[in-house]
Amino acid sequence: MLIYRGAEAEIIMDTYLGRKVIKKKRIPKGYRIPELDKRLRLQRTKEEAKLMVEARRGGVPVPIIYDVNLKEFTIVMEYVDGERVKELIPKLTERGRKEICTMIGKNIARLHNANIVHGDLTTSNMIFKDEKVYFIDFGLGEFSFEIERRGVDLHLLMEAFSSAHPEYPDLFNHVMEGYRSTYKGNAREIEKKIEEIIKRGRYMK
Amino acid sequence: MIALGIEGTAHTIGVGIVEDLNDKCRVLANIIKMYKPAEGGIHPRDAANHHATHLPHLVTKAIESAKIDEREIDVIAFSKGPGMGPCLRTAATAARALALYLEKPLVGVNHCVAHLEIGRGTTGCEDPVLLYVSGGNTQIIAFAKGKYRVFGETLDIGIGNCLDKLGRYLNLPFPSGPIIEKLAKRGKKYLDLPYTIKGMDVAFSGLLTSAQKYYEKGERIEDICYSVQETAFSALTEVTERAMAHVGKEEVLLGGGVASNERLREMIKKMAEERGAKFFVPEKSLCIDNGAMIAWTGLLMYRCGITTKVEDSFIDQRFRTDDVIVKWRE
Known about the structure:
The complex is a heterodimer. Chain A is of the alpha+beta class. Chain A has two domains: about 1-80, Phosphorylase Kinase, domain 1; about 85-200, Transferase(Phosphotransferase) domain 1 (Transferase(Phosphotransferase), domain 1, Orthogonal Bundle). Chain A has helices at about 35-55, 85-90, 95-115, 145-165, 170-180, 185-200, and strands spanning about 1-5, 10-15, 20-25, 65-70, 75-80, 85, 115, 125-130, 130-135, 140-145. Chain A has a five-stranded antiparallel β-sheet, with helices on one face. In chain A, helix 3 packs across helix 5 (about 170-180) and helix 4 crosses helix 6 (about 185-200). The radius of gyration of chain A is 17 Å and the shape is globular. Chain B is α/β, with parallel strands linked by helices. Chain B has two domains: about 1-115 and about 285-330, Nucleotidyltransferase, domain 5; about 125-280, ATPase, nucleotide binding domain (Nucleotidyltransferase, domain 5, 2-Layer Sandwich). Chain B has ten helices and twelve strands. Chain B has helices at about 45-65, 85-100, 110-125, 160-170, 175-185, 205-215, 220-245, 260-275, 285, 290-305, and strands at about 1-5, 10-20, 25-35, 75-80, 105-110, 130-135, 140-145, 145-155, 195-200, 200-205, 250-255, 280. In chain B, strands 3-2-1-4-5 form a five-stranded mixed β-sheet, with helices on both faces. In chain B, strand 4, helix 2 and strand 5 form a beta-alpha-beta unit. Chain B starts with a strand and ends in a 27-residue tail after the last helix. The interface of A and B includes residues 5 and 40 of A.
């Protein structure tokens, strides 16, 4: 059963060996020429599976992968039956928001400690279940040692907060608190990078 | 109600006159003059001199072709920003003079918002995601929580700028977009190029460098143009679709000079079809920088009581899209 049609993939509710699972299928895009379309779908399916395995190894809650099919561009994974953080945030108390953001920050730090950048950190890509924040959709993720990429990763979340939750300006500060507590490198270096990226943006004052 | 708008953010100086008719925009006049540098990119001072030379004549001609009396104009609008300082100042000075002379109110307009409003005013879309693609700007804008917010944008150079830079490298004249489009039609071989997306943002400098390397290696210009268009426009289409999915909107609007490109139009249209959304694009003269879009946005602002006093009518080179209070959509 199709439950969500994203920009690049269909999210299908399915069963696999008796388990309730999510099948992520990268669909062909009619607007792209076939050469480019296949290249992107193949690269992204492979990379996403690898990233999810490594993220889990690094201590970040992510769905377990059951199967990867590179001919059909599908990944079959655990169904995380929780609530999207995007919808959850407005329902929480100030304190609840702070707690969940700190968790998010710690998760991001764990990803970065494992040399992974998520590439699409938004509250739509986070699911809250059993007191844990699961990260999903590693479709734009990559392995990287670069401070720049880590800064961009966090900056993206900052932007996502300001567009999706403009009424709560403190969310990102709470994320950074969690991040600082868990990141193994020099967090100040990352914060400086974020400031630099903000200044690089167009029409900043 | 009738508004006169003056646009002057970059290479184009334009004067437009519009009227509201059942809440839709009727363009009475829309005249532009475009500065083309002898070589290289835009020199802001040169462009401003060009604008100052042509503006008085453009104003007279616009009023004439609108077939109105100048006293019928209710409000004078000007592009407050973002853009190049000297160009913005030239347009603003003319607007101030005109407002004082005609004793009409003045209103400063955000150029990016005007690209979206002219689409809403003339194409029949109501609440679109705008893909705004021009030389300097590449943004994905949509209305959310009382403001026009930028959901995605370029992290380095605008798509039009990317095409112009490629054109200069390939010894094509400025603006290179239309020539690249023609050459691309004769492209046969797709050359792999970096496809850079970060969330809903895009980047083009890596693609530009790679394309230049292909040229040095002796690849056909046609194939390079084809591959650049396919790669860059696919990335733009993808982030636009991502923004639509993210904000849950069913309309997509194209705007900006690069919106003239047939291949880009085709791709956005196809994307919209595949997801059951509607595709809109204003007529070409309203896609490129023009005075009518400034006039129309100024009219919308004036109608809900927004005016700019002459003494407060500063330009703002870095005027952000989300700095605009969108009273007219409440």
